[in-house]
Design goal:
The chain has 246 residues and is α/β, with parallel strands linked by helices. It is built from 6 helices and 11 strands. The strands form 2 sheets. Strands 9-8-7-10-6-1-4-5-11 form a 9-stranded mixed beta sheet, sandwiched between helices. A two-stranded antiparallel ribbon has the order 2-3. Helix 2 packs across helix 5 and helix 3 crosses helix 4. The mean pLDDT is 91.
Length: 246
């Protein structure tokens, strides 16, 4: 079984978020980057489980610059077989998806897996765009995946229950919570990943459809007012005059 797992970097959840002085971009100074958790914990780990059961190869791919190679080596330490970096710094999901789709053409992957979204942009767009570009079926937000022969059986949480979907391979799947459990790389894997060869390929020319005007932090939360249970008049006054409907 030949699987391609798309990964991306994201700021560690404990990182302090700031923007450049002109608010035109995210300020990466002092920020610790990690593999996007949905890509790592669910897509990559489930791909490795499928390889361990059925045999095959797991390739990870990212679209980014040389700084992204740190997260690629983390994925190799967990168990990926090969790592590909498309040497580009895309600004939108469409550009990212088209770069990955171009690489995947002719590679005969049985399965392309992505996390359901990135924790920094929360766009949930790349998987669907890859599937459209390649003409492959797409199942989003899958929480369970089983493979038999050339058929995938997937489960998705929907309002009021679980939806079961069957699809033939090749296909593109976006993975949500429940797909797999996080794996911690062992020391042997970490040491081996440090010297593994990474494949770096040039990007294709793709239009970027999104432009960012400016970035800003959400407004600071106001302080909390505590009203005594015996002081209903004050509570009513605050609700009438100061409370805001969000």
């Amino acid at each position: 079984m030949k699987i391609l797992v798309c990964i991306s970097k994201a700021p560690d959840t404990t990182s302090k978020i700031a923007f450049t002085s002109d608010k035109s971009s995210f300020d990466e100074n002092g920020v610790q980057f990690i593999v996007n958790p949905y890509d790592e914990w669910y897509a990559l780990v489930r791909a490795l489980e499928l390889k361990e059961t059925n045999g095959g190869n797991v390739t990870i791919i990212t679209v980014g610059n040389v700084a992204d190679e740190t997260i690629m080596r983390k994925a190799l330490a967990i168990g990926a077989d090969d790592a590909v970096r498309i040497d580009s710094d895309p600004k939108d999901a469409y550009n990212t998806a088209m770069q990955i789709a171009e690489y995947a053409k002719g590679q005969s992957f049985d399965l392309i897996m992505v996390g359901k979204e990135t924790i920094n942009y929360n766009g949930s767009q790349v998987g669907g765009m890859i599937s459209e570009a390649l003409g492959l079926p797409f199942v989003s937000l899958a929480s369970k995946l089983d493979f038999l022969g050339n058929k995938l059986t997937l489960e998705r949480e929907i309002a009021g229950g679980i939806q079961v979907v069957e699809v033939d391979t090749p296909a593109v799947i976006s993975c949500a919570k429940g797909m797999a459990e996080q794996r911690i790389p062992n020391m042997r894997g970490i040491m081996a990943a440090r010297t593994r060869q990474l494949t770096v390929i040039p990007p294709i020319s793709v239009e970027e459809l999104t432009s960012y005007v400016s970035y800003d932090l959400p407004p600071v939360k106001s302080s909390c007012k505590i009203v005594s249970a015996d002081n209903m008049d004050e509570l009513v006054q605050l609700l009438h005059n100061e409370a805001k409907v969000i």
